[in-house]
Amino acid sequence: MAENKKSFILYCDIIHTVNLLNDSDAGKLFKHILEYVNDKNPITDDMTIKIAFEPIKQQLKRDLIRYENLCERNAKNGKNGGRPKKPKKPNGINGKSEKPKKADNDNDNDNDNGIEIRKEKFNKKLNEYLQEYGKQMLYDFFMYWTEHGDNDKKMRYEKEKTFGIKARLNTWKNRSNGKYDNPNQKFKSMWS
Known about the structure:
With 192 residues, this protein is mainly alpha-helical. It has helices at residues 15-18, 23-37, 47-79, 107-127, 130-133, 135-145, 165-174.
């Protein structure tokens, strides 16, 4: 066993071999394993112990080689300075301030102006379909698809992967169950 190594791995699957031994032989096998890992170079004339110990011995050798390689790699890394240190906090030198400025979260004017302009463009595109679909349907369609929350940067239609106005208007009309078929019906509309 390696110098200063205080433990070893004994795998659970050896239970299948140990269960085939009587208790006396199982005890002898365990003592033989402990003598081997403590560099006592055990010798036995008992063929049962020799046969049961051989696969355990080979696994212990493989584990020892793996352990020694790990120790060697760790020593090499230690000579190279070990684990990299955590980066220091900015201190104001070289143009980096101690407390970075936060991004502008004031969405009130910036967002509203951008959304209002885009709403106007959307409204102009809908005007092309005024004769075909009527004022009320276009109003309802507009109100639904331009909906957005106070902090949203996009309206509902802008969040869709694809959005074709003509196809969406046809779908809207088909799902309306005749709501927009009566031209004399009075609705609230922005197209007065």
